[in-house]
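# step 3/5: fold
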Amino acid sequence: MLIIEREITPNNFLAVWEITEPLDYFLPYMPKEFFVETQSISKNRIKLQKAIKYFLLRKYFPEAIITKDANGKPFLSNNKHISVSHSKNLAGIFISDKNCGFDIEKITEKVNRVKHKFVNDAENQRFKDDKETLTLLWCCKETLYKLYNESGIDYQNTFDIQTIDYDLKSIKANVKGKLHTIFFERYEDYFLTFTIQ
């Protein structure tokens, strides 16, 4: 079920699907690339998430083909940029004329157990130590990772979250001396974050 379908700004488009349908619902709409990509995947949930990526892409850009660069970042044959994400029962795409990053994360207690892998000392001082804030930080850093698309990135030190503005739903982050603005939304118990370069 399509839950978000929105032009964020001109040439920046977000679509998010809540998974309520079985895989068979999507199969008639799948291009051959889907079957190649999922041939060695046994879990239906992962196949479903990938199917939604192709389903949404064909809905908005039926002629576009997804390819990946050497680091696995997807891009489109029509010169549009795409960022893809999924978490539990949500999957979505962000499409832009510019390089972009997009992520979805479900808010769970698990983030407390792994925060030492992505939260630096300064962020520990700046922000609350609760699952909502930590999930938002993680979601933001995943978005920046997809934007930069470099292997071996250190989430703790490469991405430094400076501020979170809950009124404007925006986050400021320093990446290698460059300031980025990441926008976020909350849908039930999920965070969505996106940015463009």
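# step 4/5: annotate
The CA atoms of residues 53 and 63 lie 14 Å apart.
# step 5/5: archive (pending)
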